[in-house]
Design a protein that fits this description.
2 domains; binds zinc ion; Rossmann fold; alpha/beta; SIR2/SIRT2 'Small Domain'; binds ligand BV8; 6-stranded parallel sheet
Length: 250
């Protein structure tokens, strides 16, 4: 039996035996749905930008229509994308023993579309917008107002007229406190954490695997490349999520 087969066999046993399983995902789990990973997201028109500069409130306030168009382009690509075999394998885990929490850094909503029920979106969701000045989501303020059909880039908040912005966490912004504390609790209580498709460079999300490890969880990484999490993983499965996860979670 090859090392990889031995790893898979042991990991399958750990998945079966887990009472609480956390699947911690990044952009790599959506790569095979055709959505460029965050580091690759700046292709074409945006290639000259650095995501850490563009995904900020300052960049949006400086040029709302440019940043709005970047998100609108990504939103259109995501709406046209489908969950892939990795998302589906994760969703199929539910109801088969372990209690599964998906803790994702992704803003594409594909885990929920694949059928996962407990999804903690640490960095928000690109399909939602909110008022730049804090009035909240337009659907709650004025249900009849259809911001998606509004040609203005960005449309104005129906209550205060300030620009609407993507309901995502920008660099330098706090993660939604309730979501992050639920993610920390899930990391502290899980028996096993699968770390799938993340470069583990963005904090505080990237600290969750270490938290789980320190609380006694086993850690497995699924990624075609090295990541800083490999050092604290019990197993590292080198490969793509849509290939490895169906194999592992069969
Ligand atoms: C905060 C939404 C503070 C927006 C995102 C220095 C040290 C430590 C921290 C910092 C620092 N300087 C600045 C910071 C803070 C900063 C940070 O961590 N910066 C990093 C870059 C150093 N963090 C923040 O600003 C956070 N907020 O700290 O607030 C604060 C404190 C007090 C008071 C107020 C504020 C907020 C961070 C959230 C930013 N928003 N997204 C948008 O998307 O437009 S993050 C964004 O990047 C993504 O959401 C994602 O989370 C992240 C990218 O990470 P990945 O998902 O891992 O994607 P990536 O492309 O990097 O990697 C893809 C991986 O997949 C690779 O490993 C690849 O090998 C693999 N892969 C590829 N194909 C496949 C695959 N895997 C499997 N299968 C495949 N087929
Ligand atoms: Zn407003």
């Amino acid at each position: 039996m090859s090392d990889r087969d031995a790893d898979l066999t042991q990991l399958r046993a750990w998945v079966q035996a887990a009472r609480r399983l956390v699947v911690f995902t990044g952009a790599g789990v959506s790569a095979e749905s055709g959505i460029p990973t965050f580091r690759d997201a700046l292709t074409g028109l945006w290639a000259r930008f650095d995501p850490e500069q563009l995904a900020t409130e300052a960049a949006f306030r400086a040029d709302p229509s440019m940043v709005w168009r970047w998100y609108a382009e990504r939103r259109a690509a995501i709406a046209a994308a489908q969950p892939n075999a990795a998302h589906r394998a994760i969703a199929a885990l539910e109801g088969r023993g372990p209690r599964v929490s998906v803790v994702t850094q992704n803003i594409d909503g594909l885990h929920a579309r694949a059928g996962s029920h407990e999804v903690l979106e640490l960095h928000g969701n690109i399909l939602r917008v909110k008022c730049l000045e804090g009035c909240g989501n337009p659907e709650r303020i004025e249900p009849a107002f259809d911001w998606r059909a509004d040609p203005r880039e960005p449309p104005p908040c129906p209550r205060c007229g300030a620009p609407l912005r993507p309901d995502v966490v920008w660099f330098g912004e706090l993660l939604p406190p309730d979501v992050f504390s639920r993610a920390e609790r899930a990391a502290l209580r899980c028996d096993l954490m699968l770390v799938v498709g993340t470069s583990a460079l963005v904090h505080p999300a990237a600290g969750l695997p270490l938290l789980a490890r320190q609380a006694g969880a086993r850690i497995a990484v699924v990624n075609p490349q090295d990541t800083p999490i490999d050092a604290l993983a019990d197993h590292v499965l080198r490969g793509s999520a849509a290939t490895v996860l169906p194999e592992l979670l069969r």
